[in-house]
Amino acid sequence: MNCEEVQAQLLEYLDKSLDRISTKHLEIHLSSCPPCRAEADSLDDCVRQVAALPIVDPPLGFAQRVMAHAREIDLSPSIWQRLALFMQNQIPLQAAAVVLIAIFSAFLYQKMDSKSSAPATQMAVLTDAAEKAKTIPQPESTSTAASKPVKESRPNTAQKNTTPAAVAPPSAPSQPARKTDAESASEGRLETPKRAPISVQEVATGRENSRLIGDNFTFGALPFGGSRQSSLRSAPMALNEPMFSINEPSADVEFVVRRRPAQRRDSAETDNLESTRKSTEAEASPAAAAMRRAAPPPFLSGMIVETRWFTVAPEHFEQFKKDLTAQTLVESETPTAKQEKEFSQKSDRPLAVKVVILPAIER
Amino acid sequence: MLVRRHEKTIFNLVYRMLGDYDEAAEVSQEVFLSAYRAIGQFRGDANFSTWLYRIALNHTSTRRKTLIRRQQRNVAIEDTEPVRDLQPGPAEAMEKKEIRERVQRALNSLEPDDATVILLRDLQDIPYEEVARLLEIPVGTVKSRLHRARQALKSQLASYFYAGRKAV
Fold first, then answer.
1. Better pLDDT: A270 or A316
2. Within this chain, do residues A228 and A123 fall inside the same structural domain, yes or no?
3. How many domains does chain A fold into?
4. Which of B10, B37, B95, B122 to mutate to test the interface with A (most CBs of A within 10 A)?
5. Could you count the other beta carbons within 10 Å of the beta carbon of residue B39?
6. Which chain B residue has its CA at the smallest distance from A7's CA?
7. How far is B142 from chain A (nearest CA, A)?
8. Alpha-carbon torsion A35, A39, A42, A44, what sign?
9. Where are the domains of chain B?
10. Are B86 and B94 in contact (CB under 8 A)?
11. Looking at residue B57, what is its pLDDT?
């Protein structure tokens, strides 16, 4: 064994991990080689000196101090708790509320949008009813959504404003005065054809939102007649009765009718126009004015199932039904005529009439 | 409980690495508090004492660098003071004390890695395999590093042993 081999094995020799034979060879070399012997002795001294370093006791109460600090860590808020505290202090509650409201509104808008896209849904009925409830109690308001029936009702609203006692048959002298008022109100209003005053108020239409521009609905939006006495039926019904708390407003009478085929519709329209003209002419006479009645719609267009609401004075209900039967095919009526008669006798308030209009069967 | 069980070993390791009692007390406390905070990260696949040693070595290494910078600024280098010029001790206890102080200074003058491996192996008597796991190096590297560290320590203590033997 030479000096290099001894140097290589010196570590294990000092650790006493060298096997017996190698240890013996190494010790033989060390006894004969003073430099290697000195090296081994000095390294052994180092190991022994380090190992002889005394165990130092930590300061008194060291463990207690550590545990006390550990308890402080437990009590002090964590980084997440600090962050939450920061957020709570720095971000005002109002800002958080605004964000929440915005999210909720977006959610509601999406939901409403998806529902209103479906034709003649209950949601549309309720929405329309709500709109009517807002607009109809203010007859002067012209900011209603551009629907023909509302526009057509303007002359009558002007008339209503100028002649509070219009329930009574209008006399001949009062007629020019009405015209003057109507003229001063708007030129466009005069151009609209005068309709027979009927005591029917359309409350809501199932597909009003989806009505086309060219669609010439002419029925049911004229607020006048017997409805004047107790204001319009729609607003009180919409606001006072539990209209929004249920899926659909309750109807006193419900009709399911079917549109007449195209030919018949034309003739029905002609009839209706004639009767309208007649009634307009007759409006000058008190007797004709007393004959103000419900004029059901011609239902000229549309192949979609519609739901329409009307308020009809009890005394005009028979006439309303007659006209409805004349212009449509009444398929069902709920409740029966007998029941509704009893109902109208018992109550003086206008009737809420629901008309479900089915498309015509083309032959 | 864990603090009491490991306080001596950790404190002695830190003290021998730093050579300052007060600093060692402060750093040892930081070691235990760090371990307390990070106890959730202890995976249990290693020995707890090994994990604790690792934390101690990290803290000690950082503090040691700070102390070295501070000593360099103060220029108070007691290491250069010849041992033979020290006042001769009246008794054997005095000599032992001097030897311990000298060894401590020699350890402090070593490279941190060398001092660490000497302290872990020769002072704490930790097996090579455990040292290797702790330092995350192979066992062979531990051995070669230990041999190199002992040579460096021997060089640091050579003058003392020479002077000491001469004095004795």
1. A316
2. yes
3. 2
4. B122
5. 11
6. B147
7. 11
8. negative
9. 1-76, 83-168
10. no
11. 92
Same domain, A245 and A334: yes
Give the residue among A234, A224, A225 at the shortest CA–CA distance from A153. Answer: A224
Note whether B154 contacts A: Cβ–Cβ < 8 A: yes
| A309 in a structural domain | yes
- For domain B1-76, the CATH class is mainly alpha
Single-letter amino acid code for the residue at A335: P
**A207: phi then psi, degrees, rounded to nearest 5:** -120, 35
Domain end point (choices A46, A63, A80) = A46
Do residue A245 and residue A328 come from a single domain?
yes
Task: Give the whole-angstrom CA distance, residue A322 versus residue A60.
Answer: 109
Which of residues 145 through 184 in chain A touch B, CB cutoff 8 A? none
Q: CA Rg, chain B, in Å?
A: 17
User: Which residues of chain A have a CB within 8 Å of the CB of B36?
Assistant: 66, 70, 73
Compute the average pLDDT of residues A247-256.
76
How many whole angstroms separate alpha carbon A150 and alpha carbon A204? 12
Amino acid at site B98? E
Q: What is the pLDDT of residue A291?
A: 42
Place of tokens 């807002």: A134
Q: Is residue A142 part of a domain?
A: no
What mean pLDDT comes out for the span A65-83?
A: 75
Residue type, A185: A
Judged by a CB distance cut-off of 8 A, whether residue B162 touches chain A is: no
Q: Is the four-CA dihedral B126, B131, B133, B134 of positive or negative sign? A: positive
Which amino acid belongs to residue A28? I
DSSP SS3 for A26: helix
Considering the domain architecture, whether residues A132 and A14 belong to the same structural domain is answered as no
Say yes or no for a CB contact (<8 Å) between B7 and A63: yes
Residue spans of chain B under pLDDT 50: 76-86, 164-168
Dihedral angle computed from the Cα positions of residues A345, A347, A349 and A350, in that order, rounded to the nearest 10 degrees: -50
Residue A282 lies in a domain: yes
For the question of an ipTM over 0.95, the answer is no
**Chain centre distance of CA A8:** 87
CATH of domain B83-168: 1.10.10.10
Per residue in A230-244, pLDDT (tens digit) is 334 444 444 444 444
A192 Cβ neighbours under 8 A, 6+ residues apart: A151, A152, A154, A155
Element (H or E) spanning A118, and its range?
A: none
Residue of B nearest to A11 (CA): B147
Statement to judge: residues A24 and A124 lie in one domain: no
User: B39-69 pLDDT, tens per residue?
Assistant: 877 777 678 888 889 999 999 988 888 887 8
**Edge-first strand listing for the sheet containing A253-259:** A200-205, A306-312, A351-358, A253-259, A328-334
Range of the domain at A305: 117-137+195-358
Q: Read off φ and ψ for residue A147, nearest 5 degrees.
A: -115, 140
A38 part of contact set with chain B, CB < 8 Å: no
From B8's Cα to the closest Cα of chain A, the distance in A is 6
